[in-house]
Amino acid sequence: MKKRVAVLISGAGSNLQALIDASSAGDYPAEICLVISNRPNAGGLGRADKAGIANLCIDHKTFPSRASFEEQINSALLEHKIEIICLAGFMRILTKSFVEKWQNQILNIHPSLLPLFKGLHVQQQALDAGVSESGCTVHVVTPDLDDGPIIGQARVPIMPGDDADMLSARIMVEEHKLYPQALKKFAQT
Ligand code: GRF
Predict the structure, then answer these.
(1) CA-CA distances (angstroms) from residue 180 to 57, 72, 112, 137?
(2) What pLDDT, in 10s, does the model give residues 102-138?
(3) pTM, whole model, 2 decimals?
(4) What is the pLDDT of residue 55?
């Protein structure tokens, strides 16, 4: 049985697209059944539409509290019988209570070699630190930000003259390969 996956996004959804593409293979162990965006204009919603995947916007700005926003997400996940949640450029921090409800069922992709460079603007953080390589990490989500057991990592070199956009683009190519591989591995366990 394929695992039922929801992808949570806030933006363009290129990682979502990589997951959709990978999951179209007959032997892939996971199926993308639902896409949720917290932003109404997220490009990823169009990608879900095009792939015929149920999708909805749950706009955090329209909720009085983080808890009520998350309750709405939780209801949608239950309604669609979701087993694994993939965060893919989802720009809201999930509360401890939500993460504990879905313990060991949430994955995130982060554009650095964790545990190095957590939080935002991590490509710039890597450049400022003067490291010679960076990359991306897929990890299980725990209540601490950008923490939790690592499922997989991919590395890229940092080149002379790189700026944050150039490094982001190089990392992104690897993200699109890593996330489908990591989800496959995770869904099989
Ligand atoms: C990716 O770099 C991801 O690692 C980060 O946000 C970006 C999302 O891009 N957390 P996209 O929406 O998947 O194109």
Answers:
(1) 23, 27, 17, 12
(2) 999 999 999 999 999 999 999 999 999 999 999 999 9
(3) 0.98
(4) 98
Q: Which ligand 1 atom sits closest to the C-alpha of 44?
A: 12
Tell me which amino acid residue 35 is. Answer: V
Residue 135 beta carbon below 6 angstroms from any ligand 1 atom = no
Neighbours of 52 (CB within 10 A): 8
Closest atom of ligand 1 relative to the 12 alpha carbon: 12
Q: For 32-69, what is each residue's pLDDT tens digit?
A: 999 999 999 999 999 999 999 999 999 999 999 999 99
Please report the DSSP string for 64-123 in residue order.
SSHHHHHHHHHHHHHHTT--EEEESS--SPPPHHHHHHTTT-EEEEESS-TTSS-SS-HH
Q: Is the CB of 12 under 6 A from ligand 1?
A: yes
Where would I find the H helices in 95-142?
A: 96-101, 122-129
DSSP 8-state class, residue 101: H
Cα 63 to averaged position of ligand 1 atoms, centre (Å): 24
- Tokens for 99? 């993460």
